[in-house]
Amino acid sequence: MEKTNSLQNYYVGVDVGGTKIQASLITAFGAVVSNHRCETPRNATVEITLNAIEESIRTLLHEQDRTLDGITGIGIAVPGVVQQETGLVVVTPNMNLSGVELGQIMKDRLGVPVAIGNDCNLGTLGECWLGSGRNTSSCVGIFVGTGIGAGIVFDNRVFSGAGQAAGEIGHIISQLPCEHWRHGITAKMHKQGTKSSKNGLAKFTRCGCGNYGCFETFASRTAMERFIREAVEHGAKSVIREVNGGTLDIIKSGSLAKALKVNDKVVTPIVRYAAQVIGYACLSVRHLIDPEVIVLGGGVIEACHKFMMPIIDAVLANDQLPSAPGKRRVLVSSLGDNAVVLGAVALVRSANGSNPLGKIHRIIPKYPQLHIMGENVIYIADEPYAKDFFILSDGTIHPRAKLPKKNVDGFRLKDIETAAGGGADLIIFGTAGAGEVALSGKCHEYLFRRGIDYRILPLNEAVHLYNTVAVRRSAVWHFS
Fold it and tell me: ∠ at Cα 18 (240, 356), nearest 5°?
């Protein structure tokens, strides 16, 4: 069980990826105190990789002047199939940890309870705790990057399946690698027809898993790279090489977004196609398990969601299968790089007997009490605030950069992104000119896509709401 004063408990979440290791110091209520990142060793022995994971944790704590004695638990995420109960990494294709009892090894080395899970499962768990899937009973996370992974959370717990391999949506067969029945009949009737290659699979792309026709061979960043290179090699004109540093070897998600902005004649139809495929995958998920929320994340979605989400919405809106009324949404990830480490902490908290997704163990930070006195002055613990500031969802207070003169009475997207971090259910905008201020379409879209509510109120009403509402909240105070 966790220590008595759970508000003061600290955890470490670790995301072990193919290129980097991120270790994060995180409070019991989900505030990310600090991150430490280092490169994942390449072509290394198991021992070197284990040492790198351990060193990332120890360095993180050293940078914060802390020791392992003050850590309640450590959650570690790895890409691959994991036995959560034993901490065994069954297989991790792009790393050398297959067959390693990572949980027990790290527990022995560090002397702290350790829980191990699949990275996409834990990314979804993080979103269910403090991201776009918060306060839901069922959620599927789909993460589009180099490949496509997913996680499933039901009843506040990860569903990993009988073989610990549930959620491998990237390897759902989206194009059947078998000859159509008409082919053979037509050939016999007309004594013609092309000869098939061995197994009839030549026209299908083989996935890294060994199968043909997998979802990620059509909609991952790797698939888009392949389509773009094919188009350019056949003479299609595109700016993609220019915006991607002069190369087509690895096309970054940010480069795809840049090409979309200029309506590139190669990238635009390819990303549109990928978005449609993702939309039909979401439709399949909805038809199979009908989760309350599907959260889309990963580098491609993060960079290109403004273009892709309306296309995905259109596919879902055109679903012809009737269903009962219900709150079903497809949202964009709120947590970005922190989703996995927060999910890792949620996992180890659950293993310690205090699942943060359950109502009984859901901890809301201690928020300051505000008082408004005089004209447009807010007091917090007898300290006056008369200049713009934030109160973030963890209860901490931060100054707000002065708005440019052209936008002195508004809120920038940067403000919204700052206020939305850390699992806020509600953002309160307190302003001296509430009737004159509205969020731009871009800001409203950002919050809508992540399921975050907001209120724009005069300062005195905003203070009252902030002090009384019983949800996880953040606030932007605008005095100008």
Answer: 110
